Fold these 2 entries.
Entry 1:
Amino acid sequence: MSFNSSRSANSGGNLKRSNDSNSNNINNNKKLKKSNQKTLGMAWGSNSLSSSKSSSRKSNFTDFGSYMVVKNGKLHDQFNAEATSSSLKDSSNSGNKPLFHGVSIFVDGFTVPSSQELRSYMLKYGGRFENYFSRSRVTHIICSNLPDSKVKNIRSFSRGLPVVKPTWVLDSVAANKLLNWVPYQLEQLVNDVHKQPKLSAFFAPKTSLGLQDAKTAANCKLNLEEGCSLKDANSQESPSCEVGESTEYSPELKEETCIYGQEKVFEVTEEEPISAEQLLLESLMAEPSGSNFNGGEAFKSSPCKSSASANDFIGDQSKKSPSSPQIATSSNQCNSTLGDPNFVENYFKNSRLHFIGTWRNRYRKRFPSLPSGVKDGNSAVTNGASVIHIDMDCFFVSVIIRSRPELQDKPVAVCHSDNPRGTAEISSANYPARDFGVRAGIFVRDAKSLCPHLVIVPYNFEAYELVADQFYQILHKHCNKVQAVSCDEAFLDVSDQGLEEAEHIASVIRQEIYEATGCTASAGVAGNVLMARLATRTAKPNGQFLIPPEKVEGFLDELPIKTLPGIGHVLDDKLKRLRIQTCGQLRMITKESLQKDFGSKTGNMLWNYSRGIDSRPVGVVQETKSVGAEVNWGVRFNTLQDSQNFLVKLCHEVSLRLQGCGVQGRTITLKLKKKRKDAGEPTKYMGYGDCENLSHAMTIPIATNDVDVLQRISKQLFGYFHLDVKEIRGIGLQVSRLENADMTSQGHERSSLRSWLSSASGNMEERSHPSMEMTGEVPSLDGQCSAGLTKHGNPNSDGDSSRLPKSSTGPSTWGHTNQSPAEASLSRASTLPQICDLDMGVIESLPPEIFSEINDLYGGKLSEFLKKNDGKDDKISDSVISSSRRELEGEIIKGKAPLPSEEIHVEETTSKNKGKQCRFQDYQSASTSAVGSLNLHTDPLSGDKYELMPTSLSQVDISILQQLPKELKVDILESLPAHRRSECSDSTLEKCPHDELKVENFKDQLEGAESIFGKSLWSGCPPEWVDKFEVSNNMMLKLIAEMYYKSGSTGFLSSILQSLISVLPLSLDASNDVDDNVISSLCDILRQYIDLKIKSDMEEIYICFLLLRRFTTKSIFFLEAYDRVLPYLQASFSENYGGNLNI
DNA sequence: ATCCTCCCCTAC
DNA sequence: TAAGGTAGGGGAGGAT
Ligand SMILES: Nc1ccn([C@H]2C[C@H](O)[C@@H](COP(=O)(O)OP(=O)(O)OP(=O)(O)O)O2)c(=O)n1
Ligand SMILES: [Mg+2]
Ligand SMILES: [Mg+2]
């Protein structure tokens, strides 16, 4: 089984698909009016992946989205069955694998042939067809020529995935073999890729290696032996290599000719029919190895075309660097965040630490975790385990100078600068240079002074990437338990082999690495990870070393403790102060003493390591725990706006990385480097110098990867540091408490269909005592009105539940939902979706038994409906949008939602027929039923007139409209009759003074009766309640009103409560006279605030309630109000997000 | 005890 | 000029 198919397996039971033409018009909002519901769905779906428009990313959190999730999830098994049977039957190509095995296409926009046809081809020949783009599932994006306006969108979400023309599929079918897709790439995008550096260049999945490489590599057969000089190797270079290794350092050649030249020179294939590149390619693309790479020709004219991925890194760099000097000059801060609008991109592009720091994520994608399915790490501890540690020698230098044999014996270092007075850092030094004391991390000026003849060579990140790939290709070939440490270093568990055999393996591997890459590696062999690593140190350079168990003690006796992994300069210094320099001396200290001095774990580690004991198993690939991005170089701000702009860029970067990892997180941490008072200009150019490191974290109730949420939170966090932006020398943003995005982002909606279809067992997760640090006041930096909130609901069934909180149950399946009718009657959120809301394409493609099940739920109306609409697909798009407008119009104008009797009827039918309802989740109070019944779901289902509603809009209430991209909103509203437009635009587009979207508060229709003040206590500026509180007789209310102004009149309740913190202790006495009316008043504003914010700013509510909870311990007044309103919040949360909210 | 945040330390 | 990132482990100290 190829890597690719393993990867497919990873995505488990949630492969997305459905049946037909719904893949039109990705993200093309302008087409909304003409598009059918599925098209709209695509627009929304793709919005979430688009990084180009910040305003367009809310919209995927709707009923519609969850509907799609369910749709896909439920259909997945059926698709598998269908695809398997038909592909087995029809696959006639020679191999045993179906033609499109491992290929998973996503069709974007209009294509010839239609996406429907493409789908059937894929299905027929063993491929997959994804209706919704997912980076983890889609291998190829199919797309015809696009208008320029769309190219940008495509690029932003394809991010390195091949974007190819539909003819690739056709031709492959015609040829009865999977053709190389490269010649079918979309030209617009290929060119575009090189013009537009990517922010996350390092994260781009490396789905494409230059085919040219593979091809020419195969032609360039050389045999390099360890003694054979590189010069010889070069001289043997096959003429068929268009560009040789020697061009590597010639900038004018390197730029446009062949940046992969070096890879070919060292390719040794011997009798191996497949080169490393080919293997890699196959692993990535599931190209049959028999495929003849007929795309090679396409490259000759345009060698750089293939680099639609990690290759961009260098491609961009080589193109950009010549032009960089012109930018410089004027200010001495021209290289800071002040001088360059694209600072972040450019910085990361050139940062070695960014490269090695992000390498792991790229590796994960290229070598999906196939091994270590068996994680028996215990063998490593007890009986004769064998561990190999292998590490490339002076990696960065080695890769560069392999093509420059004249430098082999000279001292060489990799560095951005050759300036003998410069503060650029040495990245890697070769062994001759190390003899002079040159080390990684020292300034180039120091290196030069240590070694005046030091040769400085530049980075070639792309080459590092390729060599690392070759390196790991070889490792995986020899061992299935490979633990990647870094791009040049790994552990192999060969415990089944014995140490001597391990030595042999190590030497074979090293030889192969040298032959394949022209770079040497060293290896250590021992009984555990620790000793193997230490052995490598001894082995270097270009050697290997065995430490058998009986030699461990002797080896460690004199070993400086600094050598032990985990002991850096700080621990080393501390131990030195205890007169401990060697492992032998360390062994004299008792474990208890070490633990007392250094902590329990660290002490234990020291004690064990000094004895050569290490029980860590090899090859455990643990899930990502955090994702972040930071910049601590060139960070200089003059104004608050400078800093906020930069923060926004970081948020984008982090959001992209989260998406790249397929995760979302709940804890957002902002880190700042603040220049110390007494610190002068840093020694290092544009460095941070002597800084205080500060951080603030906030945990939100719902995991997110949404850039707008990140922005809002990070801006809040930013305000917690009360500092002058001029003092900032570094910023970092990190997201932790990660959850799998497949669950969180897709199970976010409160779709009735979702909860109805799935067993709703998922979202019962306990959210354990989230907390946040509240220091200072919430600043009013946050002037934006982003409605962004990643909603959260039931984790839908998904093969990978590894991130599921323990308390949530497994995936649900059809026929296993259970809910009592009583529960169901409480919940409008569990209503059956109306027939018009269903995607008929999907319904039609359902397996018969499932179809009939649904049909039963609808009392047989589904089949009737299908009959009626048979062959009317063409008309759908127009009617859909108009009816959706009508519906929106209705909701907006009426502002209330009388429950259509038909819907109730359906619900009753449902209960009777099947007893199958969504599980009603955690409604905890009587108010729930009122809240629950407020789901604005109006369209009457009158007689046989089934309107074809766009799924996304029919179930949408007004807040969803708010979440639409503004263009879309305008689009919809414009299409309304003029008089209505003005009416509803009031509640949807107009902003209130606080720059928050004003929400029409429909719920008050039912809640208002108990309100003293009536509705919209929060309307106006100041909000109405402020005045009322001010003139009230109650001290507490007056105080709160006062806090409104003290907090800056921002209108954020959290700000008000924060201000209240500082004075509350003083007011405790005043709150002794607990007046029920007073509490009611507070409850009113709280409830209305919940209504106002629940959809747009759950975090804000969450923060407020955290604060309120604090007050409850100090004030009966707040305790009472909190207890009264909390159930309301929980019900409201439940309704909106389908889960529990624990404060 | 166990969790949290806010650090620091380490490795590449 | 120069590109001091990234992620995990862990400890101190506080809240529950
Ligand atoms: N402070 C550092 C450490 C490492 N690296 C980069 C350059 C190295 O080449 C690569 C691999 O790190 P190693 O620790 O393996 O160092 P080398 O491979 O350069 O040398 P060695 O032969 O000791 O492994 O990571 C870097 O840029 N800066
Ligand atoms: Mg190395
Ligand atoms: Mg290394």
Entry 2:
Amino acid sequence: MVFGLIDLNTVNTDDETSSFDSPSSSSGNLELPASAVCMELWHACAGPLISLPRKGSAVVYFPQGHLERISDHTALASDLPPHVFCRVVDVKLHAEEANDEVYAQVSLVPDNEIEQKWKEGEIEAEGEEEDTVGAEKSITPHMFCKTLTASDTSSHGGFSVPRRAAEDCFPSLDYEQQRPSQELVAKDLHGTLWKFRHIYRGQPRRHLLTTGWSAFVNKKKLVSGDAVLFLRVADGELRLGIRRAAQVKIGTAFPAPYCQQFTSSSMASVAHAISTRRVFNICYNPRASSSEIIVPYHKFLKSLAHSFSAGMRFKMHFEAEDATERSRCSGLVIGVSDLDPVRWPGSKWRCLVVRWDDMEGNRHTRVSPWEIEPSGSASGPSSFLVPGTKRTRGSLPTTKPDFPIPRDGNEPSDFGEPSRFQVLQGQEIFCFSTPHGGQSQSQCLSKMRCFPGFRTSMISGVASNIRHLQEDSGTPSAGTGFVESSRFCKVLQGQETSSSLPYGRGPAANQFQENSGSVRLPNYGSHWSAQGQGYTQMRHSAQLVQESSPSSVLLFQQPNSPPCNLQALHLHQKKRETSSRDSVDFERYAREPFQSGSALEDVLRNGSSGQSEEYNQIESSYPRGSQNLVSMCKKGCMLFGFSLIDGKHGASKEDNLTESTTSYNHGTKFLACNEEQVHPSPPVPIKVMSSSCTKARDMHAVRDVLLT
Amino acid sequence: MVFGLIDLNTVNTDDETSSFDSPSSSSGNLELPASAVCMELWHACAGPLISLPRKGSAVVYFPQGHLERISDHTALASDLPPHVFCRVVDVKLHAEEANDEVYAQVSLVPDNEIEQKWKEGEIEAEGEEEDTVGAEKSITPHMFCKTLTASDTSSHGGFSVPRRAAEDCFPSLDYEQQRPSQELVAKDLHGTLWKFRHIYRGQPRRHLLTTGWSAFVNKKKLVSGDAVLFLRVADGELRLGIRRAAQVKIGTAFPAPYCQQFTSSSMASVAHAISTRRVFNICYNPRASSSEIIVPYHKFLKSLAHSFSAGMRFKMHFEAEDATERSRCSGLVIGVSDLDPVRWPGSKWRCLVVRWDDMEGNRHTRVSPWEIEPSGSASGPSSFLVPGTKRTRGSLPTTKPDFPIPRDGNEPSDFGEPSRFQVLQGQEIFCFSTPHGGQSQSQCLSKMRCFPGFRTSMISGVASNIRHLQEDSGTPSAGTGFVESSRFCKVLQGQETSSSLPYGRGPAANQFQENSGSVRLPNYGSHWSAQGQGYTQMRHSAQLVQESSPSSVLLFQQPNSPPCNLQALHLHQKKRETSSRDSVDFERYAREPFQSGSALEDVLRNGSSGQSEEYNQIESSYPRGSQNLVSMCKKGCMLFGFSLIDGKHGASKEDNLTESTTSYNHGTKFLACNEEQVHPSPPVPIKVMSSSCTKARDMHAVRDVLLT
DNA sequence: TTGTCTCCCTGCGGGAGACAA
DNA sequence: TTGTCTCCCGCAGGGAGACAA
């Protein structure tokens, strides 16, 4: 049940027609095999940008890129083809002992069949439909992630726990006492237990972790800007993970020993395995932002559907270390040629010579086709970006399809379709509502790859067929299928929740078209659904802008996009009170994705028929913190005191209707901020930290010396 | 010059006839090649028990033992012979980064010639004469080693520097000041610099290291019982090493990464190298006490000269971790058989099945012939132990030489003949003066292997030919040639010095025979010499006994053994004031070892003609701390307030003459204590530390976790 | 609601002499 | 001479409410 999934602005809701009988446990028939580390925690730590190939899916492995990654360019791989078509045999989740960095070990086996298809130019989707959202399970609803503030990491005092997070994730305290406190025990990725004193004190009262917190910060070498995440798994156990800020990635200081094993030392064995068509392993660091050397086959295929030529403008989702770079990742293709015509003739790896619009970043002057998205007036994405434009099955999104396009169909990304815990982060959706063509659109779209839930739900509002939704999801313009997945939990900063609400398609679609200037953008990523939604409330536009404090934890809510998940949860809560608390049958969604007549479709069909009265009906049934939730919603979706319709930060619905361009700018701004949530890296507080907490830093330096 | 070699009870003196023109630098044509670590420091850290094969010498390598050492007993080595005859190609000195443990990488190459000789039963000494004491150089006279007390390692206060040590090793302070202090910078094995504040304060005044000391203790994870050693090398630079107590060997917690490389992972490559007769490397940990898998060829040969049979009693120098086990290492041979008749037929490795007299220790029930020394009434050693018995060249020390004995000649141990910094530790010498036969003798002799200087000088007093000295040195009874070498510096605990005094042979030999009940035992290890000695003083017996404090640092002085080195130094000081302070030409000794008519022989001839008036003449010329030295000697060789003739701990000369048995018991006791100097491991202070310094220990635990 | 600040207070530990072995 | 003890004192840092954003 979604009982515990309640969080601040987005709510996990279930389709009432789906079966919720199976309890949600932390194990199950998971797609990824049980590994050394807790899977939910792994995904929580990996963050929403993670893109993991699925077991059983078809991918392309680029030895050239692999050799590029490891410094040894002299390594032999001469007899390897530039593109090795593989089947993913296994994906194992791991975490570095030294720095808690998560990584995955991907086992690949060369697949002649895929290669054959590739050579024959055959377009195939090879029944990956079932694989897309399939087999995902094990929700971990009680979770929060908070970027550490300077106070959190200072040596004076402990960790300030967001109230809702504490109430959601921690055992409840006896508030009758003068200073309620308890001991929390949380297990990290390595199974290490950490004890904290959780106390509720201060004037005004707040939740704090005191004793034990400092030790944790020091041991983990956390600095302000890093993020910690707590999650309560099914049996009530607490898990504890960290996400380091991009700048101070210790991974560079401590080269991952296990990862290293797969990157540097075993290139020869990889080559040998490929030549003998045996299984080989590749290390996959989801937080490393280098070009991936494993790309889903269909993404690879689709990227080549474009005709890249000099002069073509493009956008790139540039996952730089510095999150701020993210909003400037457009460029111009100035040539198409082999990177290494001698050793890798015909390789698509970085076959495009590009010039970036801004020359600040020391970016590669070469990119691979699948890394970028063409932009420009004539580019394909606009074909479905125009509101109301219904795309039909088989229509090609690109204008110049000089390469066979994969057949339409339910072909989602192999790299983990957003499945759950997607949160409403609607601002970038304004691209859809404000098609300014070319660059702006593409810029938006490229950003959207982080939030596939939005895209999907967006499309669900446009297309009349669920399958079209999937189809569109696979269009290059929508991220070339390489959707960064928060497979299990896109844990969001601060008060954000871990699930989302699918958006109904019928009335919603109409509404969407009617209000072509504004888009209601419910979160959709996890394919959860809610039958009823407080739709009236949803239409309140709201936006939270990250304020001056860079490490503040805020939710970004698109103006005019309905922050309905809260209500939807309430609604669902009301309707499914009898279900077990933590059980949500995602598996069923996985097995029956987007089938007409399925439970999910029912939700989609009815989702947008929000009834505020339903919301009112259920507000009393909310178990904990319901007063706050209700008051928030009554105040126009206040989030932690911020009104979601606050004119200061958000635009009213009317504003957006008339000032879509302004809204778009908001959207642009948002994206940078949102990226910062993922890579919490405010420069200022980090600097403050390094000066105000010299002692702790010194200790870290000492440890660094010791460890190296 | 030996100017700076002065220390408390033993003195480095030079033969006045030798050339002292070449300054003693820390480099030179050293036998061991310059390696990553400071050689003097390495040897200082390795301690006096170290036995390193010499470059160029012939050794026997036992793959069987190698496989035994590494846990992988399934490793292939089936095609290797049990005895691999090798030539030592190189010896490289290293130190573990993690724990400062010293080790050596010995490069061996299979040598057909040696093998051929072995197969033909040929006895050879193959010109190793020159190699024995050859090429040793680079004295590092200013050095001291102190076992850390609880106070030294406590968090309150610093390190109490023994006065003499401070005066000898550290730059002198301006004692005019109220609290004289200076900054010391010392370099450890890895080249890391450590800064300490050296202050002379307190009432009464004492030398202390304060600021910086705690950091050093914590970084190195020192506990009370560990020992630190400072040495001042030629250019005045300070070196800083540590010797950990045996019990808390961190080496077990941190398996030596580099060492590991040579023990576990490369057995296959070793086998391959041997089969192709190429160079291979073996890790050699001088402080690990397991049976050595590399044994000098001549030692191997001589050990097989004995006819081992069931019922034979033996003694074994048991280098257990726990030093206290050292005095009970006798046993009975109960069988001779192959350890592994299938895989290693005919192997001498642990071919003797033994039963130990005490069954406490979990010792091997099998030993190798070269590990033990036969004992019993009929055993050979007594043949030259009887005072006055002159052995002639070619006489066999063993009674049943069923194996060809190596030809007589100047064939010292390949494993580092004691060269310098041997200190007078005469107690075990009483074996010679009190021959009780069999077991007692052998026990003494086996102990003597630690102090080959004594043996050599002892013999020099007996034999009329220098070459006989070497010959005797090679007899099995005198340590089977496997002499633990303090090649460069046997750094002694506390106030002990780092050089020794050769003992004249002519008059000394006479004297020796005259006073058959007591032996004057000047230190001899470094082949330094003094022409004149305050011999009257020397004959004062003195002994320091380790008092109740287990970590106290004391010198053990045999009653009735003359602590003459002090005076000898004074004498020499007087005579050679014009020489440069730190220059001692050891090289010349190395080039001309024991040649008749050489400078050294002159010394030996005249050494015992001590003149107390000479001592009196020079006392005023001693540069620093001379008053103390003089007063000490005048008081009957007081050492730090302990009278060397104190009846409480030592026996007077007369006592020893009439109570040699008692003296022998003293000797037995001494040896255990001396071992403790090498492996300073008092259990009590360590326990105290772990309770009183919990914080520091916790930090270590943290680091352990981080480092593993 | 929560980030930051300041204040309080404890305890660690460095540094000194006292004292005794 | 030096190991141990105790005392002094500075300071790091944990923990609390105040205050404001």
